[in-house]
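Intended use. Records such as the Peptidase metallopeptidase domain-containing protein entry shown here are meant for training and evaluating sequence-to-structure methods. They are not intended to support clinical decisions.
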Amino acid sequence: MIVTIKRYFNAYKYLSLILFFGLYSCAEEGEVKPNIDDKLPSDKLEKYYSYLKETGLKESEFAYNEAAQAFIIGGDVVMPLTHIDAYLEGGKNPSKVAKEAQKRTQYLVNSRQGRDIRVYIHPNVPAGWRKATVSAMKEWTNVEDCFISFREVSSSNDYDVLVSVEPTSTFDENTVAYAFYPYNGYAGNWVKINPKFNNYSASYKKNTMGHELGHTIGLAHPSDDTGIYIEGTPYMDDNSIMYSWVDRNFRLTDGDRKAVQILY
């Protein structure tokens, strides 16, 4: 699944809405809109729609992307049809809890993978985004009493997570970046950046990448009903980096650290 970050304005501050759903959150030229694949039997498609609605999502919060054979949730989380099939076959459904709590997705990263998550930053990633990615990786890696560890690798043939810049037209409106959730014990394998926001400040970029990398290890948006509450974490954490909006002051909170310490 993929998660995204979006950008908003309010009377007090400029926010960027980022990055949810089981795996795992800006198009300037075109939004990702519901697009039903004529080749997909209507009864099967309805099965997916029903599942997503049962998790607490509204139809306005997800869209089917025919090219990707996946649903885009919250603008920045990608949920492939194959992953929904796996949930349904396993009889699993996300627990719904009150808003604002620290939450996780269904799947997490296994201990072997989590101790050495190899990140390949594609050459098309600008220096500012590259620096932000490396900084965010270090911040998650430095959480104490937790085995999660990210490291950058130089080989495009041997990595766990790819970070790359993709065409603006492939993003939902105002989405800064999106990421995949973990699946079958492996970290979400892709973080995509929208070049429309290359002029973001260094702090915004770092927070965006911190948020997206959080998705790759199974953290969901605190405000999403679809996530599973992480027992033992604060029931509210207003400054969590995992909120679907991020401003320059967001950073890992004690709640964010507690969440990964409990999970890993």
